[in-house]
Write a structure and sequence with these properties.
The protein is of the alpha+beta class. The protein has one domain: Diaminopimelate Epimerase, Chain A, domain 1 (Roll), CATH 3.10.310. The protein is built from 1 helix and 8 strands. Strands 1, 2, 3, 4, 5, 6, 7 and 8 form an 8-stranded mixed beta sheet that branches. It starts with a strand and ends with a strand.
């Protein structure tokens, strides 16, 4: 499916996660202990970027008190353990990745005041994820 923002892929596509399972069928336990699942991938060839969107229901004070600081380390882990293998498995070539976590699924680009969303950006360099302000 194509949109003005890029090419969208449903998370149920098999995108080569480290375990070899389909993304939509797998929960991942991140280093912080929170359980996340991939629900959307958006490729933006015009920006040389891929966006990987994860559902993280424990975010925020009402759902488990996971603040940005408490899950910050999960972003790089997700980038290196999930995103990089998915890019390689699908022969997708980008230089930048944005990883987001939200406590509820939200339409791409939407701002929903009662949904908590955290974002981090990375530059891909020699098979690693280098944090990048965006």
């Amino acid at each position: 499916m194509t949109s003005a923002k890029g090419i969208r892929f449903a998370a149920i596509l098999a995108i080569g996660l480290t375990s070899g399972q389909a993304a939509g069928a797998q929960d991942l336990t991140a280093p912080s202990g929170q359980v996340v699942s991939l629900f959307d991938v958006v490729l933006e060839p015009e920006n040389d970027m891929a966006r990987f969107r994860f559902l993280a229901p424990e975010l925020g004070p009402d759902n488990g008190a996971r603040t940005f600081e408490s899950v910050e380390g999960d972003f790089k882990w997700l980038c290196e353990m999930t995103v990089l293998p998915a890019l390689v498995a699908n022969d997708w070539h980008v230089d930048h990745v944005v990883i987001s976590m939200s406590d509820k699924e939200v339409a791409f680009g939407a701002t929903v005041p009662d949904v908590i969303q955290y974002f981090e950006g990375y530059r891909l360099n020699a098979g690693t994820c280098e944090w990048e302000m965006f």
